[in-house]
Amino acid sequence: MSAGHGHRLHYHGHSPLHRAPGHLKIAGLLVFMLTVVSTPRDWHAAFAAYAVLLLVLVGVSRVPPRYLAARMVVEVPFAVFALLIPFVATGPRTEVLGVSVSAPGLEAASALLVKATLGVLAALLLAATTEADEVLAGLERLRLPHQLVQIMGFMLRYLDVVTAELGRMLVAMRSRGVDPRSPRHWPALGRALGSLFIRSYERGERVHLAMLSRGYTGRLPDLGRTTHRHESARETLADGAEAAAR
Known about the structure:
Layout: H1 16-19, H2 22-38, H3 44-61, H4 65-71, H5 76-88, E1 93-96, E2 99-102, H6 103-129, H7 132-141, H8 146-175, H9 186-213, H10 228-245
Antiparallel strand pairs: 1-2
C-alpha cells in the first residue's frame, strides 16, 4: 500500500502555524488543555480570553472556520452529557425556560461544555495544521516511548485499509439482502465485525513477520529526519511489508 502522508483532519496550507515545529504545537496544546481544565469554572473572563486566543490562532492558520465547525461534531457526546447534568444533579433549584433544574448542576454543565468546546477546537486546530508524520516526529522528540509512536504510526497508516475492508463487507452484506442498520440483522453485523477483527489481527501478524524478514529490529528509522533517503526507507519498509502481507 502506498498511503499518503496526510490524514482526513489535515487542511493543506502554508501559514506560520502550519510551518511551526510539530513538537512545539503538541507541547502548546498540552499546556493549553491543562490550563483550561484547571481554571475554576467561575473565571468567565479567563475562558473568554482562551476563546479569543483560539480564534486568533484559527485566523493565523487560515483554516476556514466552517472546516473546523463541521468536525466539531465529535463533541456531541460531551454536549449531551452536559445537558443531562442539570436534571440529575442535586442542590438548590432554579428555572430555565420554565423547567426546574439544579443550579449547581447548571453551573457544572456550563463549565463542562465550555471546557470541552475549547479543548476540541484546540485539538482540531492542531490536527488541521500538522501532518501525521509531523505529529509522530514531534511525539518522538518529546520523548514519548518509541513503541507507542510506532503503534500510532501503523494505526494511522492502516486505518484506511481496515475502513475500506469494512466498506466492502457492508456492500457484500447489502447485496445479500442484509441491512446493517436493521436490529433484525445486527447478529449478522456482529459476526462481520468479529471477522473483521480477526482479519485485522492476522494482517498485523503478517506485516510484523514481513518486517522482521526485512531486518526490522524493533525501531523504525528516525521520524524526525526529513531527508529523501530516510523518507524512501520508511516507504520501502512499509510498502514491502504490506506487499508481503497480501
